[in-house]
Design a protein that fits this description.
mainly alpha, two-stranded parallel ribbon, about 5% strand
Protein backbone atom coordinates (compact mmCIF):
# COMPACT_ATOMS: atom_id res chain seq x y z
CA UNK A 1 0.00 0.00 0.00
CA UNK A 2 1.13 3.52 -0.73
CA UNK A 3 1.16 5.76 2.29
CA UNK A 4 0.71 9.45 1.66
CA UNK A 5 1.31 12.16 4.22
CA UNK A 6 1.10 15.90 4.11
CA UNK A 7 2.66 18.48 6.36
CA UNK A 8 1.69 22.00 7.27
CA UNK A 9 3.60 24.90 8.74
CA UNK A 10 2.57 26.74 11.85
CA UNK A 11 3.28 30.38 11.07
CA UNK A 12 2.75 32.98 8.39
CA UNK A 13 6.34 34.10 9.04
CA UNK A 14 7.88 31.08 7.36
CA UNK A 15 5.30 29.95 4.81
CA UNK A 16 7.65 30.27 1.84
CA UNK A 17 10.32 28.24 3.61
CA UNK A 18 7.91 25.52 4.74
CA UNK A 19 6.29 25.20 1.30
CA UNK A 20 9.73 24.93 -0.28
CA UNK A 21 10.32 21.72 1.68
CA UNK A 22 6.91 20.21 0.98
CA UNK A 23 4.34 21.80 3.28
CA UNK A 24 0.88 22.09 1.74
CA UNK A 25 -0.61 24.64 4.10
CA UNK A 26 -0.18 26.52 7.34
CA UNK A 27 -2.05 27.21 10.54
CA UNK A 28 -1.51 30.94 10.92
CA UNK A 29 -2.80 33.15 13.73
CA UNK A 30 -2.27 36.11 11.40
CA UNK A 31 -4.98 34.76 9.09
CA UNK A 32 -7.54 35.96 11.63
CA UNK A 33 -6.80 39.58 10.72
CA UNK A 34 -4.93 39.32 7.40
CA UNK A 35 -6.70 36.35 5.88
CA UNK A 36 -6.69 37.71 2.35
CA UNK A 37 -2.93 38.22 2.40
CA UNK A 38 -2.21 34.80 3.94
CA UNK A 39 -4.45 33.15 1.32
CA UNK A 40 -2.78 35.15 -1.45
CA UNK A 41 0.63 33.96 -0.26
CA UNK A 42 -0.63 30.37 -0.19
CA UNK A 43 -2.03 30.67 -3.72
CA UNK A 44 1.21 32.13 -5.05
CA UNK A 45 3.30 29.46 -3.36
CA UNK A 46 1.15 26.66 -4.76
CA UNK A 47 1.30 28.21 -8.25
CA UNK A 48 5.06 28.68 -8.05
CA UNK A 49 4.75 32.45 -8.44
CA UNK A 50 7.12 35.07 -7.03
CA UNK A 51 5.98 36.08 -3.57
CA UNK A 52 9.03 37.04 -1.54
CA UNK A 53 7.83 40.63 -1.04
CA UNK A 54 4.48 39.39 0.30
CA UNK A 55 6.21 36.90 2.58
CA UNK A 56 8.43 39.66 3.98
CA UNK A 57 5.40 41.93 4.43
CA UNK A 58 3.73 39.37 6.71
CA UNK A 59 6.67 38.78 9.06
CA UNK A 60 6.37 41.87 11.30
CA UNK A 61 2.60 41.69 11.86
CA UNK A 62 2.77 37.93 12.35
CA UNK A 63 5.53 38.25 14.93
CA UNK A 64 3.52 40.99 16.65
CA UNK A 65 0.32 38.93 17.07
CA UNK A 66 2.21 35.80 18.11
CA UNK A 67 5.63 36.04 19.76
CA UNK A 68 5.64 39.71 20.79
CA UNK A 69 2.11 40.41 22.05
CA UNK A 70 0.66 36.89 21.99
CA UNK A 71 -2.98 36.05 22.41
CA UNK A 72 -3.72 39.44 23.98
CA UNK A 73 -2.30 41.13 20.90
CA UNK A 74 -4.31 39.04 18.48
CA UNK A 75 -7.47 39.69 20.49
CA UNK A 76 -6.73 43.42 20.52
CA UNK A 77 -6.31 43.57 16.74
CA UNK A 78 -9.44 41.46 16.16
CA UNK A 79 -11.49 43.72 18.44
CA UNK A 80 -10.23 46.82 16.63
CA UNK A 81 -10.86 45.72 13.05
CA UNK A 82 -14.50 44.75 13.50
CA UNK A 83 -13.99 41.15 14.60
CA UNK A 84 -14.53 39.62 18.02
CA UNK A 85 -11.34 38.94 19.94
CA UNK A 86 -12.98 39.09 23.31
CA UNK A 87 -11.52 39.49 26.76
CA UNK A 88 -8.38 37.67 27.81
CA UNK A 89 -8.82 34.79 30.22
CA UNK A 90 -6.68 34.55 33.32
CA UNK A 91 -3.74 34.52 33.62
CA UNK A 92 -3.35 36.42 30.33
CA UNK A 93 -3.65 40.16 30.80
CA UNK A 94 -4.90 42.63 28.18
CA UNK A 95 -2.35 44.86 26.51
CA UNK A 96 -1.29 48.05 28.26
CA UNK A 97 -1.95 51.33 26.47
CA UNK A 98 1.70 51.53 25.37
CA UNK A 99 1.57 47.96 24.03
CA UNK A 100 -1.65 48.81 22.18
CA UNK A 101 0.05 51.81 20.60
CA UNK A 102 3.09 49.76 19.57
CA UNK A 103 0.96 47.00 18.06
CA UNK A 104 -1.25 49.55 16.29
CA UNK A 105 1.85 51.11 14.72
CA UNK A 106 3.09 47.74 13.47
CA UNK A 107 -0.29 46.86 11.98
CA UNK A 108 -0.73 50.31 10.39
CA UNK A 109 2.46 49.76 8.40
CA UNK A 110 0.69 46.90 6.56
CA UNK A 111 -2.62 48.71 6.18
CA UNK A 112 -4.45 47.29 9.20
CA UNK A 113 -5.78 50.19 11.27
CA UNK A 114 -6.67 49.53 14.88
CA UNK A 115 -9.10 52.24 15.90
Amino acid sequence: AVVSTQSTGGSASFMKASYSVGAVGTVAALANVMGQEVCELHDKLVAGQECLDLQYRLIAPNTAVTATFGIAGLKFVCDNVGLYGGPCRSPIQPLSPSQQASLSDIMAKVGIHCS
